[in-house]
Task: inverse folding
């Protein structure tokens, strides 16, 4: 680690940018590293790597992971980083190097959870408005200027007005003002070539040439998009001694900008009057220019952007119960204790797109669906790629009975996060309502298949959607308990906080609007019978009152009487001595578990699976959840071994599967497999088959013969689930056409060791197979894993 007087060491995992990107885009990234280097000893990592090895090599004090916006990521490559979540000693921060309204935000949040990152920094002052669920975990590292480039060059002012920057639909102020100003004053207009291709931006002003052009200008109008963001241009213009003309916003106010003192804050009604006045009073114009120059060079250069260092310093000294807060986007971070630790300040900029969303919400929840949809479309027209308007338009479609359009829209949002951004799971609310949309289409089987994906993904809306599917499939199950804030995945979408009864009422309304009256009635009746009491808010419905209701026959005798078992439990709850004993035993068990799990973290897994920390492994959790929840009647595991996480998780899930599936475990004669056979005893539910040959070619033939024999003896057309742990198979073994065929017929295929020779081929074949959807994957966890599920839109081959 660092010495007392040295800078802290920071490893910065940054996208590798294509040289085809515009020069100014690359320059912005270089300036970010330059700013970090003012406060840290920075090591930039852009290649694929193992996180633990990088930490061993650099011995960092802090790790920063860049998460890039959608349009920039097109010409950039994110490094594949293995084992990120396994080293808890180095604090980790996410860096949202993207617009606050970026379409990749759900992917950012997914990556944070996947890598075990609790805290993020954003360059956007409006980030909390667009991700309010991250309040308390999201801080601002605002835009800045490189004082060596953006400065006073002493240029003679020959340009009355310089107009630069994008004028797309999300820059409404800029579009209006540019037109007004060019009609009144001589202006130098510099078209913008976009952010993707260097060829399209070859004639753009950037770098020192752009800074000198600003220095030679009197006025330079710009704006912070429809969101009223604080952009680089807001700082670059006064830093080069030009007069900033811009739209008023809380962010600029927080940055220290004051109308007619160090800038001009104007709209289309007064901008020409203010500019004319200042042209007629050059001394006052010079005073404003000088004050803006002083403001930026004293508060907004890369030398003043130490927010990440502030967080690091405070984090080292945090006491239990304390929190780091940021009162404002340009204010220093501080430590607070409850009740003062209220989180970071949410500045309401009243961007037009957010105002329209709020107005649309008011119309939507009052039942004015067409008016709501009109407002949402207006919001979407400002930022066409923003997910929130698209999602709300899909809700309007459901209320109007157009389930097909709603499903297409919501699926497109999830598809972007999973396929384009390549997150391991989608936004939970988007996924929940893709399930609801399938129910509204009458596709109960497809909804059940989708509800079973991403079993680790947790959110109240998604839990309720999964519960509704189970109810409609006739599976008697209590309603999902309320999800704790520590467990739930944050969503970029916000919905009203409803009780379960209210939620069911709304879903039934959607189902009836889409013509699914039978499903609506089934859900409504099931809710009245079992769901409402299971999730009654804070004692509104008492358990004993529910049991005494004759309609709720829980006693099994048709009388509705309270069962003896319940009375016995009630009496035991009154026994304080018994409760104290239970508490002591629980405390001792937890202490022992923590100690043993600590040893496992150091030496590897050695405890039985049901008490081992391996149950928290993301892949093992997914295997167990899938094996438990999927409709599996037959399953096969290749490479099974006693004590191995994949095998133990698979067994644990199958034991709890309501279908009572039959499983077949296959491997060579390894000690682990022999031990597994002795534990199982070759019973009728789980049967072990041993590959006797050690010669790869013969073993491959024998494997195919075993698979064929199992299918013939049990009269199977295919296996419902296939698990292949290639790390425990002979690395030279190959899969013949018979085994390959099973991979093309199963409903679920789980592959471990996808970076190894055996499953690498299987993984790539399934990726190219349109019959399968990649449900989850993490090539960086150990030697990589992947989970595929059959595409419900394509029938299973006979």
Result:
């Amino acid at each position: 680690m660092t010495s007392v007087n040295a800078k802290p060491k920071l490893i910065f995992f940054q996208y590798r940018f294509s040289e085809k990107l515009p020069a100014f885009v690359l320059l912005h990234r270089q300036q970010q590293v330059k700013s970090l280097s003012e406060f840290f000893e920075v090591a930039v990592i852009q290649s694929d790597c193992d996180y633990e090895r990088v930490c061993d090599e650099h011995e960092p004090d802090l790790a920063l992971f860049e998460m890039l916006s959608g349009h920039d990521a097109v010409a950039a490559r994110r490094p594949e980083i293995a084992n990120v979540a396994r080293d808890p000693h180095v604090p980790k921060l996410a860096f949202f190097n993207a617009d606050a309204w970026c379409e990749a935000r759900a992917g950012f949040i997914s990556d944070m959870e996947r890598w075990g990152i609790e805290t993020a920094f954003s360059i956007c002052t409006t980030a909390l408005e667009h991700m309010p669920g991250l309040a308390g975990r999201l801080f601002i590292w605002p835009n800045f200027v490189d004082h060596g480039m953006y400065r006073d060059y002493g240029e003679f002012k020959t340009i009355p007005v310089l107009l630069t920057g994008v004028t797309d639909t999300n820059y409404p102020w800029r579009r209006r003002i540019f037109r007004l100003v060019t009609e009144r004053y001589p202006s130098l207009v510099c078209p913008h070539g976009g952010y993707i291709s260097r060829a399209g931006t070859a004639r753009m002003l950037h770098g020192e040439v752009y800074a000198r052009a600003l220095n030679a200008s009197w006025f330079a109008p710009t704006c912070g998009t429809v969101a009223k963001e604080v952009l680089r241009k807001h700082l670059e213009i006064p830093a080069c001694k030009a007069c900033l003309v811009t739209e008023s916003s809380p962010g600029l106010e927080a940055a220290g900008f004051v109308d007619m003192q160090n800038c001009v804050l104007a709209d289309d009604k007064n901008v020409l009057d203010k500019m004319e006045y200042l042209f007629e009073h050059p001394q006052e114009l010079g005073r404003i220019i000088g004050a803006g120059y002083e403001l930026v060079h004293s508060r907004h250069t890369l030398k003043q952007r130490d927010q990440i260092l502030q967080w690091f310093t405070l984090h080292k000294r945090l006491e239990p119960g304390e929190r780091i807060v940021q009162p404002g986007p340009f204010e220093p971070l501080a430590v607070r204790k409850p009740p003062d630790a209220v989180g970071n300040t949410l500045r309401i900029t009243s961007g037009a797109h957010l105002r329209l969303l709020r107005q649309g919400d008011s119309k939507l929840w009052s039942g004015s669906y067409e008016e709501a949809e009109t407002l949402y479309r207006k919001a979407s027209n400002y930022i066409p790629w923003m997910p929130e308007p698209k999602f709300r338009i899909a809700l309007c479609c459901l209320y109007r009975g157009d389930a097909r359009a709603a499903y297409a829209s919501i699926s497109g949002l999830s598809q972007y996060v999973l396929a384009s951004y390549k997150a391991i799971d989608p936004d939970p609310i988007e996924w929940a309502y893709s399930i609801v949309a399938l129910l509204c289409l009458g596709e109960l089987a497809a909804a059940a298949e989708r509800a079973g994906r991403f079993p680790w993904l947790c959110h109240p809306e998604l839990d309720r959607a999964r519960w509704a599917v189970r109810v409609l499939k006739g599976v008697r199950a209590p309603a999902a308990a309320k999800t704790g804030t520590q467990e739930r995945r944050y969503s970029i979408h916000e919905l009203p906080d409803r009780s379960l009864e209210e939620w069911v009422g709304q879903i039934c309304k959607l189902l009836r609007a889409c013509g699914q009256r039978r499903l609506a009635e089934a859900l409504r009746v099931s809710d009245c019978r079992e769901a409402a009491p299971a999730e009654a808010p804070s004692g509104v419905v008492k358990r004993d009152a529910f049991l005494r209701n004759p309609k709720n026959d829980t006693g099994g005798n048709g009388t509705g009487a309270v069962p003896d078992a319940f009375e016995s439990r009630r009496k035991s709850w009154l026994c304080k001595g018994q409760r104290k004993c239970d508490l002591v035993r629980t405390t001792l068990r937890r202490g022992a578990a923590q100690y043993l799990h600590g040893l496992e973290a150091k030496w590897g897994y050695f405890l039985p699976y049901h008490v081992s920390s391996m149950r928290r492994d993301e892949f093992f959790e997914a295997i167990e959840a899938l094996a438990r929840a999927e409709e599996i009647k037959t399953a096969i595991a290749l490479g099974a071994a006693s004590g191995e996480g994949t095998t133990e998780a698979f067994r644990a899930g199958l034991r709890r599967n309501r279908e009572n599936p039959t499983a077949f475990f296959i491997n060579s004669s390894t000690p682990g497999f022999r031990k597994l056979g002795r534990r199982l005893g070759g019973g009728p539910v789980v049967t072990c088959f041993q590959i006797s040959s050690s010669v790869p070619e013969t073993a491959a033939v024998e494997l195919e013969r075993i698979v064929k024999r199992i299918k013939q003896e049990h009269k199977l057309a295919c296996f419902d689930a296939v698990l292949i742990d290639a790390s425990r198979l002979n690395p030279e073994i190959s899969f013949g056409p018979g085994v390959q065929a099973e991979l093309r017929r199963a409903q679920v295929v789980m592959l471990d060791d996808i970076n190894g020779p055996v499953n690498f081929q299987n993984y790539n074949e399934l990726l190219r197979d349109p019959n399968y959807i990649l449900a989850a994957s993490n090539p960086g966890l150990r030697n990589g894993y992947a989970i595929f599920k059959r595409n419900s839109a394509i029938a299973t081959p006979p």
Summary: Confidence is low (pLDDT under 50) at residues 527-588. The first strand starts at residue 9 and ends at 13. The two ends are 61 Å apart (CA to CA).
